[in-house]
Amino acid sequence: MATQRHALSSKSEFESALERAYASQIDNHAGAVADYIPELTKANPDHFGMAIATAKGRIFEVGNTDIPFTIQSVSKAFVFCLALELAGPELVAERVGVEPSGDPFNAIVFDPGTNRPFNPMVNAGAIAVAGIIYEKLGKDAFAFLIDRFSDAAGNRLDLNQSVYQSEAETGHRNRAIAHLLLANDALAVPPDEALDLYFRQCSINVSAADLAWMGATFANMGTNPVTKKFAFDIAAVRSTLAVMFTCGMYDYAGHWAYDVGIPAKSGVGGGIVGVVNRQLGIASYSPRLDPKGNSVRGVGGFQVLADHFGLHAFDCTNIGSSFISSLVR
Ligand code: GLU
User: Fold this and answer.
1) Structural domain count, the chain
2) Distance from Cα 286 to the centre of ligand 1, integer Å
């Protein structure tokens, strides 16, 4: 439930809200760093940072917001958006649905009516989407993705080679999924090419500040608020935010929509990005995950921010939009 709202009078309200969210979680040591990709175990479990970037080009940060970590499944939202732009919604819809699955992110399950993956936020859907990008761009596909991610972040991003190799060596479940996608006509390129692109996109290093800017670029209709560089197609952003809202938080998406109420995507690297449309990108980083794969402190911190600002899309007082608008000039 929303707690008391604070009088918002100056930009420092963002800082105090962030500090409050941070303080509410810093002693929370629940959860565990992902270990099914061996290289991910090297993350420092105590790192924790949160950042808010505005669609008007300001950023507010608390904690470890400059520590690099791999974007993992957070990439799925951005790559889906780019696939819509590159291939168009019709072709994308032939390969992947937009229904929440209610299953874990790595489930080997397809929509029984269509044989397609349920949505682009689970591994099966994301590998199908990576296949679309590869189908359109071939060997240039990864350069395209990392360039656009970098344009969105306003910062040159790089690939974490060790995580990429670790994932490529151990990702047998994803390999099985890719072959089933081929069998189901949800993939039109060799499975190994789609998988390689998928493993790379998941292994892009970002910080919480980068992710907040990427979220703010979504909030700012696809253009980075500071550099003014185009990163995402505006119609594709709308579709992507819808899928993030319904499917972005693994099989916790329903609870998240109920409690926090903003489009978001999380990854097993410990990152979460959230978007307040036309206003904010919000990001957190803390690598201890709950059993569903969401960052424990991240979920808790977002909850505090959503309550504090009334960010929930269906907040009955709709207080968030007007309050935040007055702050982000
Ligand atoms: N690269 C990871 C995998 O495929 C992403 C999982 C995630 O972040 O949910 O297993």
Assistant:
1) 2
2) 16
For position 36, which CATH number holds?
Answer: 3.40.710.10
Query: CB under 8 Å, gap of 24 or more: what pairs does 241-244 form?
Result: 241/275, 241/277, 242/98, 243/77, 243/80, 243/98, 243/119, 243/120, 243/121, 244/77, 244/121, 244/275
CB of residue 248 inside a 6 A radius of ligand 1: no
**Known catalytic residue: 134?**
no
Question: How many helices and strands (H and E) does the chain possess?
Answer: 12, 9
Q: Can you give the residue range of the structural domain that contains 106?
A: 74-202
Phi, psi of 163 (to 5 degrees): -70, -40
In this structure, which amino acid lies at residue 243? V
Helices (H), the chain: 12-25, 74-95, 123-137, 141-153, 161-170, 172-183, 191-202, 208-219, 234-247, 253-259, 296-309, 319-327
Q: Say which residue the tokens 């949160």 belong to.
A: 50
From 80, 122, 123, the mutation candidate for ligand 1 (largest count of ligand atoms within 8 A of CB) is 123
Beta carbon of 61 within 6 Å of any ligand 1 atom: no
What's the number of CA atoms in the CB half-sphere (13 Å) around residue 273? 36
Question: What does the alpha-carbon distance between residue 210 and residue 218 come to, in Å, rounded to a whole number?
Answer: 13
pLDDT in tens, 2-36: 444 444 444 478 999 999 999 999 999 999 999 99
Question: What is the best residue among 202, 205, 292 to mutate for testing ligand 1's pocket, by most ligand atoms within 8 Å of CB?
Answer: 202
Task: Tell me the mean pLDDT in the region 228-246.
Answer: 98
